[in-house]
Design brief:
Strand 13 (755-756) and strand 14 form a beta hairpin. It is built from 34 helices and 16 strands. Helices cover 42% and strands 9% of the residues. With 867 residues, it is of the alpha+beta class.
Amino acid sequence: MEDKTAFSLEEIAEWDEKKKVSLPTVQRGFVWKANQIENLWDSLLRGYPVGAFVLSPAENNTWHILDGQQRATAICLGFAKETFRDSQDYYKVFIDLDLPKQDDSRKFIVRVITRSHPWGYRKLENNKTLTAENIRKAMDLYDAPDPLTTPLEKFFPFDAGFPVPLYYFINEALKNESASLVNLFTTLKNWEHWGKVKLKWLNHQDEHFDIANETNIEQILLSKIDYIFNHAIKILDDAKGRKIPALEMDLNFEQDNQPEQEDAADEIENLFIRLNAGGTQLSGEELNYSILKAHLSSETQDIIENGCKQLFKPARFITIAYRLYQQDKKEVQQADALTMRIKPKQFQRTITKQVKSFEQFLIDTIQQKSIDGKTLLDYAKNILAYNEHEQQFGLPYLLYSKISDIAPELMFLLLYRIKIKRDRFSNKNEKEHRQMLGMLTLFLWFGKGENLKDHSKLLSNIWPSASTLPKERFWTSETIERAHIGEVLLPFPAFKNNKNESGLENIFEYKISEKANILNKFEKESGEEYRLFMQKVIYNRDLLLYAQRSFIESYFKKEQFKLEDTSVPFDWDHISPNRLVRNKKNIQRIVKDWYQTNGNYRAWPYALNRMDSDNSPGIKLNPFSQDFDDKTQLLELKKKWAQFIEGNNELIADERKIEKKLLEWSFCEKAWQECYVENIRNEWKQPLELIIRRNVLIMQEWYKELLIDGLKKEVVVNAETLLDKRKWGKVPTGIEEFDSMFDDKEDTIWLSSSVSLSNSSINLYIYYPIGESAYLEKDGITFGIYEKSSGSFIASLKEKSSDEIDTKDFTWIENNFTLISSTLDSLKILINEMQKWLSKLPAKKTDKDVIIAKFNEMISSKFKFID
């Protein structure tokens, strides 16, 4: 390609179509939001600068685009041209013939619709989605039974005055001298939606012109079109039109004092990292993936992109896979080997040394069917996913695909347990399978630590369990107990009543009154430690998705959750309509507290939402029970339902099933169909009782299906249970030699009675942190031998041992141990580890035998027969 310092908009729009400019391997796809496209085109039409492109020469007289891909793609979309990686299939660009009002910073209202929001975004706040009410109106306007299956060409922006496709202006303006306003107007009038858009526009006009005078209307529209058209001609003019500057970076130059040329891929990689200090920045892991791609073959990149669909984003997969690779290769010396945050510079340094090995690991992970005839990722999906025939307790796609997005530590944990620890789940032991899913969801929703957004501390807490326990013990309350250390995992109540506490089922029996405080009453019964859990759980929409999993999995296709600008192809619909409380005064406090909780929401497809408007629950869940003003309304509703049934006959066979199916799909009891409340100020009790009860039913579904009660922490024993208290004593504070020996005054310290050896006398000691479950912390228990400075036993060990020994005022030797959980099995393992440590001390056999024998005598009778 010839050297250029600037490109016209037309040239940029043809970069991909004519294969003049391409993306290097390090580049990601298109990530701009609709409002960013709109704002760019407003700037272009106004003549504002939009920054420079950075290009690098590539093969066959073409260029790589190193910076500016998002802007170039947005320009292509406005021209309705092909874009890098086919983004044009997901976006359509319009321009509103109505100009902005005076308080609007825009000069042109450019509107964008997307595959997931085919009605577009809000006109004034163009980063916000439409309200549910406006989406319903839009659906009726387009007459599209299901927006997810209807071609994008059948839609236009709803929240706009008079939107028309932008490319009509561009195509006509590109004709230069022969460009014609008359031809443009004719083209626009032939657009398939012109009539609908025009009628909607007319219905919203003030009566300052005669809307019945067609000639007058055409003159007004022609004037609006002419204004925009003139600006389009100006920016597209060959000689004086908009040019966007470009900087050329030749990355194949020779370095000073370096006979070999610098590897171009490495240079692109380094420059790409520098350039991403601005603009729409890549996250650390996206940058890491871009760095890695510079070293991978195109075949491997395709394997990665295709192999991790429906479970990971590729960049997230690389992060988790790299940590898994370190564990698999036992390269875990790094202090941060468990964190899912890897700094790009660190990743760049380490991966270049291991790239071939890591590449093969990635290929094997994605392609090797070594786990029950499945690949690692397929096996993970298989054990996570809902299946209506074999795994009805499984997670809907929206939940299990969310694990790696929200909590990559948990996805790493699952894959680690499958690959490294060889955990397997089958229908033969369904209980283990359910508990595994129960634990993952508990960790996902309530294991975020103090800041409620970080799972790394949770992973650190449970790692001693994850790296040692067999499957039968790991996916149990033993691991949950470790997760609670430091209150990282919120305490959660039982659902069923038991001898220790009242369960959530009691809420079913609560009497609802205007002054009742449901959460406070439950806390008084079960404990204040559950306050934060209860405040979170009733608003946790993921829990609602689990309750509705059968319907969601049956209705939606997986690809509909992975649209360009969203992952939720439905509306969160109020069952008792929000209009009853929105902007209303004198609404009871208890109604305000509960109206926006899960109990009054359902995940509801747009195709169904258009049918029930904003009606009461009784009409929403039994639409033909309402009184129709005339037969036309009834016939129109029947027509909509007939369209829906025809397109979803695997869900519903005929109209007679509507009442039953709406209850099932909404996860509602039949009592909801008897609620026709329209004035919630005076008739609040019936809908509120339904909302509170449904909240508890949603929680019950999760608890019951995934055996959450069975994961409740049950402390059987604690660290001091292993001691025979007659032969140990707590060390008091204020004794100088012990205060200097045990620096942490927050420890519980036990000192044994003296043990006589051949030439000296010693004491054993154990200490661990004070606090509930604190003794479970990693290396939280210290076990050692203490001897006065006048003795000779420790002094003799000092010469042969690498362990820390202090010989000023007293002598001691010790080691740190981790207690996995407060179960007898864990304590037995701990004692065995202590015994092994004693047996390996570099002392005379007779002395070691005495110490071990005395230690065995000093432990509780529960452990007397330990080998």
